[in-house]
Amino acid sequence: MLIEFTIANYRSFRELATISMVAAKLKAKDERLDRNNVFQVDHQPALLTSAAIFGRNASGKSNLVRALAFMRAFVLRSSSGTDEMGAIGVEPFLLSTVTIAKPSLFEIVFVSDGTRYRYGFELTKQRVTSEWLYAVPRAFEALQFHRDLDTIKIGRTFKEGRERIQLTRPNALFLSVLAQFNAPVAQKLLAWFKRLDVVSGVTDAGMQLSTMQRLLEKGGAETIARIVTALDTGVEGLRVEEGKKDEVRTALADIVNHRDSEQVTVNMLHTVYDGDGRPVQQTEFEMDGQESEGTRRLFALAGPLSTALTEGRVLIVDEFDARLHPLLTRRMLQLFNDPATNPKHAQLVFVTHDSGLLDNLLLRRDQIWFVEKDTKGASTLYSLAEFKGVRNDKDYESGYLGGRYGAIPYVDSLAEAVAVYEVDDAKEE
User: Fold this and answer.
1) 3-state DSSP helix/strand/coil percent for the chain, to nearest 5?
2) pLDDT for 237-278, tens place per residue?
3) CA 228 from chain center: how many Å?
4) Is the Cα torsion angle 103, 108, 109, 112 positive or negative in sign?
5) Distances from the Cα of 254 to the Cαs of 7, 264, 286, in angstroms?
6) Helix, strand, or coil here: 194?
7) 421: Cβ contacts below 8 Å, ≥ 6 apart
8) Which of these, 36, 171, 264, 399, has the minimum number of CB atoms within 10 Å of its CB?
9) Residue (of 10, 2, 1) closest to 121 by Cα position
10) Which residues, at least 6 apart from 109, have a Cβ–Cβ distance to it below 8 Å?
11) Where are the beta strands (DSSP E) in 241-367?
12) How far is the CA of 140 from the CAs of 6, 42, 75, 364, in angstroms?
């Protein structure tokens, strides 16, 4: 379970920015949202099932997703993915001379096997400057370790770290090194990061990989087919030939290992009708060559969605509504906000431009987030719940589009810009 995520000095985020999944002490217009969109497990805080992030183009929304993707990748690969002097691919805020050489910060609070952890690090392109891990097994935080450059202080209860301090390179994370040497707590935490699904960017490559992996699992093809067919695409099933499953596995291995791979064909089933409109047979369309962009997007999303819901994972999606009808994105969001379809408390955090989701009968105020960029290129992140005087029966969409909450584009000068070009063209004639 994700509790909160914080970054600073990363891409367009100059100052600290935190997205929190902790439910605020507020009431929704429809009391069912307070029951369905909020859950609590063991002694953890009440958490939200989903969060939507809105903002104008180039405001920095995708950078928040990229930050999560970067943190996940660096945790999983830093001990083996960089050599002793290799540069770290972090991107600080570049529009200020003050921040360019300063470390970027990443911190995440989450629950794994009933224990809450707070883990984070600061780093430059050259090295990790600090790293920390705290656990909350009961009521109070307990230090597991804290790193300051090459000095690592081990907490009283964190026995697995004492013998491996000297094995950590400046450009690698201590947590990753511990996991590489089979330290049990570190391995458990890396397993949580592996289960954190982050789909970043406008392409479907990452989601396609997840869906292909799901196809290879027992019952996976049937689950993916049910999702695609249930969303009114005209597709009535899908098929990966038995002889091609090995090709799928090889292709997935190539992608994971950054090798070129041949495209694996997934066939979508459609019904053929005779002249009187009676079904006579089925035919197969190649998904990549004959299906629409929307159907391909749905196929790509089906894997991460079904995996998150069936295993109780955290799913982060950039451009959630890309190439999809608004009713489809609304229905997929409702899957996470319904205990009947989300019994294991999966969480969905997504970036969207679909203002129709700003509905007080769909989302609570603490589930709605905005990203705004100032005149100096720095992004800020804030929640609708932070605004005073916004009642739960307000029309959130009209308030947003009317500029009350910020995070919208300023397009008044567009007509003037077009007019200038028209005048220039007239002069040329």
Assistant:
1) 35, 25, 40
2) 676 655 455 555 555 555 444 444 445 567 777 777 888 888
3) 21
4) negative
5) 32, 12, 22
6) helix
7) none
8) 399
9) 10
10) 2, 3, 4, 5, 116, 117, 118, 119
11) 267-273, 279-286, 314-317, 347-351
12) 20, 15, 25, 29
Sole residue written with tokens 């019994």: 343
Token representation of residue 321: 């509504």
Q: Where in the chain is the domain with CATH 3.40.50?
A: 1-196+313-429
Element (H, E) at 215: helix 205-216
Single-letter amino acid code for the residue at 176: S
- The DSSP symbol for 24 reads P
Consecutive 10-residue averages of pLDDT for the chain (429 residues): 97 98 95 95 92 94 95 91 74 95 97 95 96 90 94 89 77 93 93 91 65 75 76 67 55 47 62 82 68 72 89 93 84 94 96 95 97 96 94 93 88 69 55
Structure tokens at 247: 């090709």
* CB-based contact 47:298 (threshold 8 Å): no
The topology (CATH level 3) of 1-196+313-429 is Rossmann fold (3.40.50)
Angle at 407 between CA 404 and CA 408, to 5 degrees: 85
User: Around 277, how many Cα atoms within 13 Å sit in the side-chain half-sphere?
Assistant: 0
299 near 223, Cβ under 8 Å? Answer: no
146 φψ region: left (φ > 0), alpha (ψ -120 to 50), beta (else): beta
> Could you identify the residue written with the tokens 């909450």?
405
Structural tokens at position 148: 């300051």
Inter-residue contact 49 to 128 (CB < 8 Å): no
